[in-house]
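Subgroup meeting minutes
Present: P.N., E.W., G.H.
Scribe: E.W.

1. P.N. recapped why we're keeping a running log of single-chain structure predictions: easier to compare across weeks, and new members can see raw inputs and outputs side by side.
2. G.H. added today's entry (218 aa).
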Amino acid sequence: MKVTKHVMLLALILVMQSCIVKSIQPFYTSDVISFDSSLLGNFTDNKNGSWEILSFKEAFEKDNNDAKKYSKQDIEALKKYNQAYVVNQNKNGKEATFLAVPFKVENHVFIDFTPIAYDDSDSNALALQHLLKTHSVAKLNKQKDGVIELQWLDEKPIEELLSKEQLKLKHERVGVDETLVLTASSQELYQFLVKFVKSDLENKWSDSETYKLAPVDL
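Output recorded in log:
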């Protein structure tokens, strides 16, 4: 059957790809947000993509150049995300824009990513209405040569902890492919990250979706 073939193809794709952990709620709480202006700029990555990192305020003002016309929602967004970034990523002409919120976990820097917009020109409008813009989280490592490394939290170590009942974190398995989606609160997710970075779990970042961003000299 046609449906069976689609399910089998989907399963094959999932096996071949590493999957980042997705969450309904942000991985941070407001008291740990930590903005770093040195991350702003233009970059190329190790996967032939380009990145533009702007402050939320700068990106907002680019799209809304008349402050007198700001709505109540606009002002609330500027206040809420005044320490966030807007990240524009482009690969092979396909663009995506993310809200990216930096925060500290012990001495480590993490960034919470949520898609704002993406190239959906070839997508079905009805199908798009079924998609949720979930959160993901990446650990940031700044290297001496100015390269920024982003390592996304991968499903594999989380699945291992769940299967061994060593992790009690609210979650659901969603859709025909049973995608793991965390449903815990932001406070619970943050406390999990605190324990995760301190843990002696082997190879906890080895399967990460990793991007290395080299600054572009303009």
